[in-house]
């Protein structure tokens, strides 16, 4: 008996559903990604093999580095509500009143480095101009006007009042930074009974062992 020959047709796969899933995933990653904000005082941190992550909340960072003005120290707080409360406490202590709009704008600034007297001018700037080199000279740390010490003190007070917990601190210093400047910041923290703090480092590959 003669065999029936089946006609062969080229197989086709409908990729419409796969394309929809791919675009949904792409949209999800774009919307949930966090853009890296420009740093007003970029520093090259020393390398380390330690991989402990800093907390995402309840953290204040002291960045120590050098810009075209000289040695500078910047201060930053992760939590917006703590930033606002700290600013209000600092303003009250120095007799400076900030408007609601200025407070709202300051709550968006993660890190800054200007004397309190120049903070209003900094807040009024655009983010691009604010982060230009040399615009922020650093927070005063001299013995006659140690504003950094007050920022630390009031940030801790704000954290306790709002979160009922102590604020964590981290020092982010440039790898080429002279030790006495870092030591000065460490002494400032210890003077306020802050004996536990982190040192920010970059990741270095572990040495190979035979």
What labels would you give this structure?
alpha/beta, 210 residues, 7 strands, two-stranded parallel sheet, five-stranded mixed beta sheet, 7 helices, globular
Please outline what is shown here:
This protein is of the alpha/beta class and 210 residues long. The protein contains seven helices and seven strands; from the N terminus they run H-E-E-E-H-H-E-H-H-H-E-H-E-E. Helix 2 (80-94) packs across helix 6.
Description:
38% of the residues lie in helices and 15% in strands. It is of the alpha/beta class and 210 residues long. Helix 2 packs across helix 6. The termini are far apart.
Distance between the termini: 73 Å
The 3D shape can be described as: globular
Uncertain residue segments:
none
DSSP, total strands: 7
Give me the secondary-structure topology:
Elements (H helix, E strand, L loop, with lengths): L15 H17 L14 E2 L10 E9 L2 E8 L2 H15 L5 H7 L4 E2 L6 H6 L2 H4 L16 H17 L4 E6 L5 H13 L6 E2 L2 E2 L7
Parallel strand pairs: 1-7, 2-5, 5-6
Antiparallel strand pairs: 2-3, 3-4
């Amino acid at each position: 008996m003669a065999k029936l020959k089946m006609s062969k047709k080229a197989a086709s796969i409908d990729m419409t559903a796969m394309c929809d899933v791919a675009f949904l995933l792409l949209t999800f990653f774009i919307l949930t990604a966090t853009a890296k904000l420009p740093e007003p005082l970029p520093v090259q941190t020393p390398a380390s093999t330690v991989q402990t992550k800093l907390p995402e909340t309840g953290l204040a960072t002291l960045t120590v580095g050098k810009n075209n003005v000289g040695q500078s120290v910047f201060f930053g707080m992760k939590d917006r509500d703590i930033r606002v409360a700290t600013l209000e406490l600092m303003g009250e202590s120095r007799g400076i009143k900030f408007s609601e709009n200025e407070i709202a704008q300051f709550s968006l600034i993660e890190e800054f480095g200007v004397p309190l007297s120049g903070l209003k001018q900094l807040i009024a700037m655009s983010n691009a101009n604010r982060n230009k080199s040399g615009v922020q000279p650093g927070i005063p740390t001299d013995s006659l006007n140690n504003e950094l010490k007050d920022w630390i003190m009031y940030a801790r007070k704000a954290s306790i009042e709002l979160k009922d917990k102590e604020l964590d601190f981290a020092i982010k210093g440039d790898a080429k930074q002279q030790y006495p400047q870092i030591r000065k910041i460490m002494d400032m923290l210890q003077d306020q009974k802050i004996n536990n703090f982190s040192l920010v480092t970059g990741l270095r590959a572990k040495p190979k062992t035979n």
